[in-house]
């Protein structure tokens, strides 16, 4: 009887060991598969070219970070619905918290456009040079996903559109504040057109793309349809 019990115990231990080993092998293979997929997306999204160009731009690597997919998943609780702060035809914007408790906004586009990878790289490089108080600051990007993700500073007081059209107190929104916001927006646009290292045409300036911070300072955002214009180019034809 004891030999039968020992045999059963041995069989059970062997089965459990085989199960653990199989699970471990499966985990390792899946991890390698995920890493290879991330590496593929990183190269596909121009990660090496972007890193090289950022290194050539003085100060860019200090201000713009290339985030890992794990960092942004953790920051947004794996893109939980409760973290959504904006949604539209452009995609979805999530609120995130980094390990140092810094609050960020992560723009996750809906559509993948492989033909615009070079444009995306140029946009990141140019925006990394902009340090204007009335333009939403680009903090970095993530290239390990099928669609590149942009990481911006978080602006907490919503859009100008909401304050003048949807807020119950819109009628009491002071005209002095409205004029100041208009002036600040104009300053940002002038800067992008005339003072940036490579002029940027925003092409989608509207109240939903003007964010306001806690003291109602304007921040121009959403450069998804913007165009970079070389200084030796005097005309630009676009379709909006």
Automatic annotation (TrEMBL):
Q: Where are the transmembrane segments?
A: 12-30
- Residues the record lists as binding ATP: 108
Instruction: Report how it sits in the membrane.
Output: Single-pass type I membrane protein
Xref: InterPro entries: Kinase-like_dom_sf (IPR011009), Prot_kinase_dom (IPR000719), Protein_kinase_ATP_BS (IPR017441), Ser/Thr_kinase_AS (IPR008271), WAK-like (IPR045274)
Q: Where is the Protein kinase domain?
A: 79-240
Its GO CC terms are: membrane
Matches recorded under PROSITE patterns: PROTEIN_KINASE_ATP, PROTEIN_KINASE_DOM, PROTEIN_KINASE_ST
GO terms in the biological process aspect are: cell surface receptor signaling pathway
**What molecular function does GO assign, one term?**
ATP binding
- What are the UniProt keywords, alphabetically? ATP-binding, Kinase, Membrane, Nucleotide-binding, Serine/threonine-protein kinase, Signal, Transferase, Transmembrane, Transmembrane helix
* Catalysed conversion reaction: L-threonyl-[protein] + ATP = O-phospho-L-threonyl-[protein] + ADP + H(+); L-seryl-[protein] + ATP = O-phospho-L-seryl-[protein] + ADP + H(+)
Which protein family is named in the record?
Answer: Belongs to the protein kinase superfamily.
PANTHER family, per the entry = OS01G0310500 PROTEIN (PTHR27005:SF468), WALL-ASSOCIATED RECEPTOR KINASE-LIKE 21 (PTHR27005)
Name under which the protein is recorded: Protein kinase domain-containing protein
